Amino acid sequence: MLKIKSMPFVKLPIFSFIGLLVFYSGQTMGQEKTEREFRVKAEEVPEAAKRWVIQAFNPSNKIKWFYEETSGKSSFEAKFSHDRLNHSVEFDLSGKIEDVEVQVKWTELPEKIQDAITAYFESKFSKFRIEKVQVQYTGEPNEMIKWAKTASSGLIQTRYEVEFYGESENAKKLWEGLFDENGKMLNLREIILPAASNLFF
Amino acid sequence: MRRLILVFVWMFLSYQGVAQNRLTNLGFFPELQVRVHAGDNLKLTGKIESQHGMATMPEGSEASWGYRHVQTDFQAFAGTSLNPYVSLTGGYQYRLDGDNEDSHRAIQQISFLQRKDSYRIGHRIRADETFAVNEAIEYRLRYRLSFEIPLEGQSLDPGEVYLVVSDEPIFSYQDGETGFENRFAAALGHLSLQKQKFQAGIDYRTDRFFNADLRQRIWFKFGWYLTL
């Protein structure tokens, strides 16, 4: 190490090159949306969150807990299967319920929602393919428990999150669209897949 | 996931079953890969990979230890994506060969990415042609199946560790002779920034299946993959 330090910089082109690469890759990082999710033990999760899941769903399968950071916001997430559907329940750090997402098949959505979303796709894309559909439910904790037990969605806000592949004149991309309870598009963002060049070269 | 593990165990055990007089080589295999987006839909990839032998161990004989430079490959690729999942790539390789004449290689590949709920699958179909002085052209056709499995959640995020496992059968033809090689690799990786991955693992290559002495080469592989 001492030897390297005492050598003039110009004699270390390979180290300079590697240094530049690290520096440059760090610079580009600033513009990326950061999202991180990792497994946590149930003991690390607020009691209120664990209680809520049991009270609302009492899933027979194992609950997997995750800690998630999305663009500076942290949360806990419970993932489990209930009624053969993948459920994901998000809580703030105090354990207060934020939303429930249920993964469903496209054909299980109400017909009028399918029609509205399809009409949107057809207006924007020459070709599209739906890859994943989640129904998102939000509301007050007690209302959410009522909804979970009775499926009555009176005071619950329902939205639809659809991941799809869309081809337009200029682009062939993956998208995530958020649609309201009538199937009207609220938000559209491009899904950037993490680099996979380590798999192909 | 259980099914995946069984497939890998089966692949590994199947090599053990065909052993005859085995020749084993051990060594190190560092590689560096840099990828840049050069245009709307043009990706350039540069790669250096180098094999350094440390030991040769014929079955039933003493191991012979000692360093030797086996080969260093300089590769350049230009590719385009047909959509987020399918890419077409062409490339060139120059090989500095420690034992034989240096060689040139032309490479063509198509790759497919499959997304699953908690892992990704890569399919790479590649053809290459190798040109060396005083040798007939060698043609190869290869298919690599890779799995990238996050170990800290359901998706791979920055700062997390993952497992990558792959297998690649390679068929070759040169001057009337055919050959077969298999490459199995398993590595632990780390996505340190959104666009930077490090991997360390084992690259296990077997060839000369139809000769008296099956050869297996075990490389300790270290990779650094950058997307700028």
Explain the overall architecture.
Chain B: Pfam families: DUF2490. Chain B: This is DUF2490 domain-containing protein. The complex is a heterodimer of chains A (201) and B (228). Chain A is 30% helix and 37% strand. By secondary structure, chain A is an alpha+beta fold. In chain A, strands 1-2-3-4-5-6-7-8-9 form a nine-stranded antiparallel sheet. In chain A, a hairpin with a 5-residue loop joins strand 8 and strand 9 (185-190). Chain B is mostly beta strands and 228 residues long. In chain B, 7% of the residues lie in helices and 71% in strands. An eleven-stranded mixed barrel of chain B has the order 1-2-3-4-5-6-7-8-9-10-11. The longest helix of chain B has 16 residues, at 2-17. Chain B is globular and about 45 Å long. Chains A and B meet through helix 2, strand 1, strand 8 and helix 6 of A and strand 1, strand 3, strand 5, strand 6 and strand 8 of B.
Structural class of chain A: alpha+beta
The pLDDT mean of chain A sits at 83
Please tell me the total number of domains of chain A. 2
* CATH overall fold name of chain B: Porin
N/C terminus separation of chain B: 32 Å
Tally of alpha and pi helices of chain B:
1
- SS strand fraction of chain B: over 45%
The percent of residues in helical segments of chain A reads 25-40%
| Strand order, largest beta sheet of chain B | 1-2-3-4-5-6-7-8-9-10-11
InterPro entries (chain B): DUF2490
Organism (chain B): Cyclobacterium jeungdonense
Pfam families (chain B): DUF2490
Protein name (chain B): DUF2490 domain-containing protein
